[in-house]
Amino acid sequence: MDPINKRYPTLPFFDERHFQNLYDIVSVEPVKEQDKVMMGMLKSLGIEKGKPFAPDAITKKAMRQGAIDAWYYVQHWYDNPPKRFFFWSNRHYASLLQSDANKRFSFTYDDSIDITARAAQYVWCTYVPKVLSDTPANWYLAAMDDADGNKLEAGKLYKVTVPTNMPVKQFWALTVYDRATFSFIYTPSSRTTLSSYDMDKMKKNSDGSVTLYVDPKAPKGFEENWIPTAGKRPLPTFRYYGATKELHNKTFVMPDFTLVK
């Protein structure tokens, strides 16, 4: 089956359905050493391999609230990330690849597992490398705040100018995700991304750079420079494919998004 023109659900549930998903996974997946503590905790909720999962109404209500609380906890964490989260010290971009201190993504140490950092990483990014290189082939940098340090808000117009000297050997792309789900924002235009492959269609500045806009409604005359948000809180993410040394050593600095007032 070719799914190119089909939409199908892949997002996790942040309500009582999350626990049914856990049961379905536990029922078929092997248990690793690092899973055993969690398996014991899940057993206390009635989630156990080889046994039926049938929570009563009171348990379902508690599960629903627990999942909702977890969603709000993670969202609050992303709104208040540690300073090390940001790629440049004077900008507001964070790398989607936030490894542990060992440059891996297990977050497992000799004396502990960093469960908060692990949760934060895997909520917004599913597939990661085994080891994070100092010079990865690609960088994915998400705009957490605007140029003034304010959180990006739903329903507002933001812009960013992409310079002509983008540090890529292949291409750059800007994808705008839904901040609530870290997934695409679906709109009638089906446009989630603009890239260097779209340059011929976009209106350029006098120096060859392009200014991109993120908003529910396209600014007049800049329809081809616009990614719609449908009223969702945006998470604009620049993708640098074939990143060059200027990005690795951070001598290239990307402009922040600014609020258009």
UniProtKB/TrEMBL annotation:
<feature type="domain" description="DUF1214">
    <location>
        <begin position="139"/>
        <end position="244"/>
    </location>
</feature>
<dbReference type="InterPro" id="IPR010621">
    <property type="entry name" value="DUF1214"/>
</dbReference>
<dbReference type="InterPro" id="IPR037049">
    <property type="entry name" value="DUF1214_C_sf"/>
</dbReference>
<dbReference type="Pfam" id="PF06742">
    <property type="entry name" value="DUF1214"/>
</dbReference>
<protein>
    <submittedName>
        <fullName>DUF1214 domain-containing protein</fullName>
    </submittedName>
</protein>
